[in-house]
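Service request form, structural biology core

Requester: graduate student, group of Dr. S.
Request type: structure prediction, single chain
Budget code: on file
Notes: please return the result as structure tokens.

Sequence provided:
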Amino acid sequence: MTNKQITKSNSQKFLNMQQRKLIIGAGILLLSSLLLLSCEEKAKKAEEKVKYVIPDTLMHSLVIDTVKKCPLVNALKLTGMVDFDQDKQVNIFSLVSGVVQDVKVQLGDYVTAGQVLAVVKSSEMAGYGNNLVIAETNVTATKKQLEANKELYKSGLASILDVTTAQTNYDQALSALETAKKVLKINGNSATGDYVIKAPISGFVVQKNVTNSTDVRPDNGTALFTVSDLKEVWVQANVYEANVEKVHVGDNVEVRILSEPDKVFTGKVDKILNVLDPTSKVVKVRIVLQNPDYILKPQMYASVLVLNAEGKEALCVSSKAIVYETSRYYVLVYHGQGKADIAPVEVLNTIGNRTYLSSGVQEGDEVVGSLALQIYSELNN
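Core staff response, request fulfilled:
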């Protein structure tokens, strides 16, 4: 074989080797692509398989809310303060001067009508007791004098004028005795010199301005005790001048306090004062609330929502069903068997525990009404 033939043969072998390498490389590339596609399909199927299902441990305590139509209302938010019902509050003063000897109650105590609050040692009371004794003595003396004059008149030893004078003295003594009794009764009916201060109504001691050994006088303008029945309280709310026309007597009201943020107290606007405070430029609005458990206490700050019906309807859900993230609102539409989907919604308004929606769900849809944020995070993951 010539050199030329050898060279040609080597070249052919080289070309065959290159072709085989290209074919093998192409095969490897094709196989890799197929493997990659297969992995992606498996991952996709796996992802579809592990879609989040609400576990039974959560389902037992989960609240499912139903989308429904509710009357659309506007709300005006006001600040206010809990106050006594001044129609069921009594300021207690001492009707005599003296020294307080025995204070029997403390601030915040519940007292019943007629219960003794304190005792005052008083010279005036001692004087009233002495006046009663003198009046009783005069009645006895004038009665005997009248009887004696009547006997003397029968025997001719006394004139009718003597009898008339004795009768007049006796009648005046009786009148003086009745006066002494009434004065003593008004002041506690004690003839021992003690003025007993009693609760005129049942309620709580909401003010106490006296201690043992305190000197008291009837002309002192400060009440010794204030007793109030707190089963009903007032909330005094502040309405700025620009919003006065938006509040009406009879409007429904929702009141919340800091100590019970999840509890709503409902009532109505009872009175709008027609006086504008010259400093704060607010009008006081009075709301009457029932307080059977005494949760509302005077001087508590209150958040007040005055509700005005618009005469329209809108879809509404519990405010606990709403999730807010990245400038959008969402609800979790529940399909049963622990399955839920995220649905974006448009919120019209939120008033207390109710949120009004304009789109995103339909009437009758069921939505997750508790633990919404936790389930939303699981569905997103």
